[in-house]
Write a structure and sequence with these properties.
2 strands, mainly alpha, two-stranded antiparallel ribbon
């Protein structure tokens, strides 16, 4: 039995290293170790990997696979696409909600006013016409917002509702 007197590898407490020289040495060693781990991760998984470190003096150090520039460009591109996609989805959702609200209002109006006797009063006819014109205006606005973002079948349906409103207001 061979007993060694050492304690083996000790865990280092994560706190700021007081000595500037020791901090510089630790930065250098850990930077190299981090680069090796990043390269290994990239090789094993095929993922694009990048990191940027700054010394206390402000000097930058970076690693990127395939290159730090390509990793950063890809990150910015994906982030921008996500932002645009979220905006598009939000506007689609809002437009579809607006359309659904309008559809319900028109349906309620049809059930309430059109199924009853046709009014002979000019004032009531003008009032109904104003309703139809307001509905059509809102529908045209929704169509304009979502025209490029909606599948053809859904757009045709929305257009048919618009034609129905035009026929009812004529």
């Amino acid at each position: 039995m061979d007993k060694r007197g050492g304690k083996g590898r000790q865990k280092i407490e994560m706190k700021l290293i007081e000595s500037k020289e020791a901090r510089t040495v630790a930065f250098s060693k850990r930077k190299r170790g981090l680069g090796e781990k990043a390269k290994e991760y990239s090789n094993l998984t095929g993922a694009d990997v990048g990191f940027i470190l700054f010394t206390q003096a402000g000097k930058p150090h970076s690693y990127g696979s395939p290159s730090i520039e390509k990793v950063i460009d890809k990150f910015h591109e994906l982030r921008q696409n996500d932002s645009q996609q979220n905006h598009t989805n939000m506007s689609k959702t809002n437009a579809f909600e607006a359309f659904e609200d309008l559809r319900k209002e028109v349906q309620a109006f049809k059930e309430k006013d059109l199924d009853s006797e046709m009014p002979t009063n000019k004032h009531m006819l003008a009032h109904k016409l104003k309703h139809f014109e307001a509905y059509k205006s809102r529908l045209d606005k929704i169509k304009k917002e979502i025209k490029d973002d909606v599948p053809t079948e859904q757009f045709k349906f929305i257009s048919e509702v618009a034609l129905d409103l035009e026929e009812m207001s004529s």
